[in-house]
Amino acid sequence: MRADTAWKTLAADSTRGWFDLRTEDLGDVPVRIFMTRRLLEDLEDGVYRQIVNATRFPGVRMVCITPDAHFGYGVPVGSVIITDGSIAMGPVGYDIGCGMVSACSDVPASAATPDACLRFNREVIARIGMGAGEAGRTARLSGIDRDEFQRIIRGGAEYYVARYGERVDRQRAERDVLPVDDGWDVPWHGEGRPERGVTQLGSLGGGNHFIELQRNQEGRIFLQVHTGSRGFGHGMATNYFQMARDERPAEITHLDLGYFTPDSVHHRSYLNAVAAGANYAIVNRLAIFEEIAAAFRTVFKADLELVYEISHNLVQREWHPELGEVWVHRKGATRALPAGHPQLAGTVWEQTGHPVLIPGSNRDWSYILRPLPGAVESGFSVNHGAGRRMARAQAMRALSQDAVDREYRAAGILVNTDGRVPLDESAAVYKSSREVVQAVTHAGLAEVEHELWPIASVKAMDARRPRRTRGVRDLSTSQRHGRSRSR
DNA sequence: ATGTGC
Question: Is there contact between A209 and strand B, defined as CB under 7 Å from any strand atom?
Fold first, then answer.
């Protein structure tokens, strides 16, 4: 293995806005890194080993690294792994189907007064369970039984909209429904306990999941949501990892390294789990969106219209002009199909390409992009956010709660209802979203359609962190000695 | 990401 510190000098600038990486560690798998030289220089050295991992699954045809990439589980968060048959687990991740919703309104940002923002965040928090382990609270989805849950994870957006949806246009969801075989069932039994998902439908979760009110470049109010498949996807990933390890105990020791070749008895079964997890995540996002739209009507007396819903943790069968029919794993990467892509035929996006939803931190720009024909060079993929640049534990040590809270208040951004900013999710821990998106536009993968600035942010405070009373000195051990895992 | 760890 090449020294971790030397590899960056081997990345050859293609002059087209990306680097082609060729080292003996990668075999003959093409690796493209879509970064500026500066973003590449700032990348943690450990990412090289994870890029090598990404090329080592059976049947890998191509690997792309997006400009927001950072250290992840086995492969970088921000990687696109294209195979001709094998399905890898790390490159889908624990949060199967995690993704974004964007919505817009005609309401001028001037209506988002401090009082209106406070009422909005209060309404949202009352309606949407947030934080690890929290159950959903949406009236329509709480109390559903196991049979109805089965219909939801098999029917996806199509079933949800027909049965529950009030004002969702299915054309604005990336996938109506991912097909699940009748003969397949959820791996209920196992330590992963995916049944947690039954009561968690309609909840936001923790970590980097959020709800955010924004204003666009014309001064209209927009909204973004980031969430996934909660305990359901996590539980299934855990149980399938056990199956992968049992199948190849000598080789597969970490979930990062788990995979199923086409001849594995679990190959199709795992794809069913990915489809069910993605259907759950999509319904979760649509249900949360509708709940937020109700909160928005209460506060702003106006409608929020869905712009788009899209996942950035998924493996899907796709067509590529040079690679043919392939499996595209996107681990913290967003699909970007431009106008004329055959998979958009017959949809409302045929002439334009579909929207691409890119969040920045809650004190930085977020974006809605439009894919360009050049996206063929990245396997029809772009970044999924700004990308973490500071580990959570480091953030807890390095940042002052009061100083960060003051910065947000001065910027006019309300976080939750008390203005206390989760430090390990604050602006300083993320790369500049503008710099990351410029790497995408410079490479000709997409163009900017909307630039969105945060107004009000809802995000769970890490439950492990002791609550500090204002004005009282904090001597808790977790503030002084955090753990050093980045995600 | 997560019934969120050493």
Answer: yes
Q: Does the residue A278 lie in any domain?
A: yes
| Domain CATH for A403 | 3.90.1860.10
Distance of alpha carbon A224 from alpha carbon A487, whole angstroms: 21
Contact A96, A298 (CB under 8 A): no
On strand B, nucleotides with any atom < 7 Å from a protein CB are 1-5
Number of domains in chain A: 1
A38 Cβ neighbours under 8 A, 6+ residues apart: A435
**What residue has its CA nearest to the C1' of B4?**
A132
Q: Is residue A414 part of a domain?
A: yes
Residues contacting residue A54 through CB under 8 Å, at least 6 positions apart: A31, A60, A63, A75, A76, A79, A81, A91
Nearest 10 degrees: CA dihedral of A90, A91, A92, A95?
60
A312 is catalytic: no
Q: Do the bridges between strand A334-335 and strand A11-13 make them parallel or antiparallel, or are there none, so unpaired?
A: unpaired
Domain assignment present for A245: yes
pLDDT digits (tens, 9 = 90+) for A218-256: 999 999 999 999 999 999 999 999 999 999 998 888 777
Q: Is residue A44 part of a domain?
A: no
Cross-strand partners of A447: A370
Which two three-digit tokens encode residue A160?
A: 């949800």
Measured from the Cβ of residue A12, the count of other Cβ atoms closer than 10 Å reads: 11
- The share of chain A scoring above pLDDT 90, in percent, equals 86
**Host domain of residue A229:** 99-464
Tokens of A102: 């964007």
Measured from the CB, is A463 under 7 Å from any atom of strand B? yes
Regarding pTM above 0.90, the answer is yes
CA-nearest of A158, A178, A173 to A225 is: A173
DSSP for A327-375?
Answer: EEEEES-EE-PPTT-GGGTTSTTTTT---EEE---TTS-EEEEEE-GGG
